[in-house]
Structure formats: structure tokens, C-alpha cells
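STRUCTURE:
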């Protein structure tokens, strides 16, 4: 990141407005165009300049391109300094402050549109979700048990793999320094975006990706969470190995999923690749991936038993039988 590029990128009133908006929330290019009252091609040109300078980054989700600020507390010092400059400018420059406030008021329409899309999705899928929920412990009970299992220790940088609706990211936001909510489904990311859009922009980001090939550098996170997602993995051991790769030594993994069961109809009705997991198989897979397994927690309350498995990332990989999780 170079100071010349930063100063050139900020030498335009529209780009100044964009940067202040992005410090409020992540936005699609089309959403930015709506707030700014400019054409999407014109906004795209401004976006290109900001990303080339390193002040912002683009992330493609299907046909949508989302933009987020890189000027958080964990970012480059020059980018963080630029963010402080813009915040000061809004305090000292009355005209700029009025424009920024007017722009932020426009975000209410963006949020409302996202929430309406999420509500529509839930309405279309309510019967499916209710059918699965009726088979296991109430969500509130599971969430409390997971919070108890993780304890009071801060979560640091948290990766929520298969974030779905974003509920886990929302639940643990206060205990994490930064949350990355990952999902393969564009539909689910849009639902999650609606749920998480009121969290501070520099504390949460949404990423499209697959749990078998995580788009992150090694040893990036302190905590990894897989909540009701591992049963979708054709190769759970591979997903756990990828989770281990991105967790720092001493970091934790938490898996919430079903104990082994025989309800084969879930394969067709809900696309489950695995009919739950046994403690032995999952402990072996965690050990092979480099985690030290902890005693699991079981929650009854329906035909399906929900379990919580925890593991601590070892300083060096812990080798066991390397046996893959048995197919069920």
C-alpha cells in the first residue's frame, strides 16, 4: 500500500462518500449506486480506484460484487490512518458531515430490502425447517449448551463455517474480535447478510466458499465453528483437515451436529450426506487433523440427539489411526 495511491483515491468527493459508507456496512456495487444516486458503471469505476489503492476490497458472490473497507483496526497502518482522517473530516467539515449523514440514512432502504428478501426465503422454506427442527432439541437449548461449552474464554478471530442464516455469528459476535461467516450457498449468504448487517462493518465479513477448500491462509483463526454443517460433507475428514489448517496452535474447533442415527429419509429430504457421527469416529478424525478432542456434550429432546464436540489445535499434529469417518 502506497501513500500516493491512497491520496489519489481519496481525491474525489464520491469516493470519500463511498469510504464512509463502507465503514458502516459492506455493500454491493448496485447498493452503492442506489445510495449515491449514480449509475452502476460510474460507481464501478470509483470502486476500481479504491480497490487498486488498497483502501477497499471486492468479493464476488455469483453475479453480485460486494465491497468492504480494509480500514479496520487489523488493517494496514496507512489504511487505518486514512479511516481516522475521514472520521475527523466528518467532525470538522460541516458540509461533509451533512452529506455523510444523508448517505447513511439511505442505508435504511438497503437494510429493509435485505430483510424482506430474507423473510421471503424463510416463508418459502418454513415447512422444511420446521420439519427438521421438530426432530431435535430446541434451538435455544442447543445455543446455550454451545455457549456453555465454549465458556468465557474470548473467541478471538472466529470462522463460522456453513454460517447458514448467520445465527451463530450473531450469537457470538460479542465474544469475538472478528467474525468471518462462510457459506457455499449464495442464498444463505444473502439471508445471513440481512441478519448481520447491523454489526460493525470492521467486525464481520461474509465469504462464499467451500469447507473442503477454505479460501484463507494457514493459522488465520483462533476459533472455528461448524454448526449443523458437517453432515453435509461427503468427506468430513477433509473438512476437518481444512479447519485445522486455518486454526492457530492452541485454537479451538467446535462441532455441533447429530449423533449417529438411522433416519435415512434425511438424505433425500434435506440432502444430508452423513447420518450423524459416533464419538469414536469423530474423535479419531479430530485427532488425525491435529486437534486434541474433548469429551462431547449430548442434548436429548427429540428423535435426533444433538452433540457438541470440541477440540484444541495441538502445537504439532497428533497422529492416530488416521482412519476416515465411517460411511453412514
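SEQUENCE:
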Amino acid at each position: 500500500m502506497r501513500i500516493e495511491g491512497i491520496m489519489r483515491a481519496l481525491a474525489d468527493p464520491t469516493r470519500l462518500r463511498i469510504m464512509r459508507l463502507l465503514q458502516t456496512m459492506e455493500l454491493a456495487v448496485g447498493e452503492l449506486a442506489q445510495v449515491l444516486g449514480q449509475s452502476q458503471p460510474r460507481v464501478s469505476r470509483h470502486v476500481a480506484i479504491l480497490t487498486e489503492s488498497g483502501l477497499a476490497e471486492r468479493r464476488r458472490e455469483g453475479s453480485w460484487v460486494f465491497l468492504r473497507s480494509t480500514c479496520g483496526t487489523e488493517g494496514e497502518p496507512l489504511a487505518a490512518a486514512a479511516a481516522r482522517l475521514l472520521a475527523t473530516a466528518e467532525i470538522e467539515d460541516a458540509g461533509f458531515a451533512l452529506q455523510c449523514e444523508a448517505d447513511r440514512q439511505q442505508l435504511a432502504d438497503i437494510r429493509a430490502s435485505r430483510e424482506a428478501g430474507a423473510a421471503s426465503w424463510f416463508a418459502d422454506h418454513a415447512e422444511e425447517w420446521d420439519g427438521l427442527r421438530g426432530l431435535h432439541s430446541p434451538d435455544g437449548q442447543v445455543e446455550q449448551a454451545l455457549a456453555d461449552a465454549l465458556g468465557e474464554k474470548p473467541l478471538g478471530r472466529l470462522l463460522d463455517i456453513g454460517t447458514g442464516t448467520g445465527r451463530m455469528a450473531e450469537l457470538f459476535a460479542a465474544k469475538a474480535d472478528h467474525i468471518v461467516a462462510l457459506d457455499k450457498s449464495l442464498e444463505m449468504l444473502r439471508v445471513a447478510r440481512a441478519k448481520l448487517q447491523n454489526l460493525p462493518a470492521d467486525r464481520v465479513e461474509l465469504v462464499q466458499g467451500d469447507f473442503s477448500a477454505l479460501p484463507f491462509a494457514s493459522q488465520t483463526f483462533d476459533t472455528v465453528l461448524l454448526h449443523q454443517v458437517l453432515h453435509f460433507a461427503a468427506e468430513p475428514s477433509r473438512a476437518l483437515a481444512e479447519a485445522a489448517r486455518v486454526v492457530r496452535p492452541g485454537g479451538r474447533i467446535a462441532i455441533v451436529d447429530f449423533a449417529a442415527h438411522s433416519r435415512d429419509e434425511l438424505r433425500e429430504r434435506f440432502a444430508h450426506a452423513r447420518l450423524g457421527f459416533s464419538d469414536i469416529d469423530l474423535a479419531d478424525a479430530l485427532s488425525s487433523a491435529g486437534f486434541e478432542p474433548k469429551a462431547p456434550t449430548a442434548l436429548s429432546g427429540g428423535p435426533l440427539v444433538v452433540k457438541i464436540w470440541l477440540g484444541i489445535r495441538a502445537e504439532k499434529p497428533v497422529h492416530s489411526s488416521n482412519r476416515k469417518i465411517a460411511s453412514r
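REMARK: Residues 94-133 form the longest helix (40 residues).
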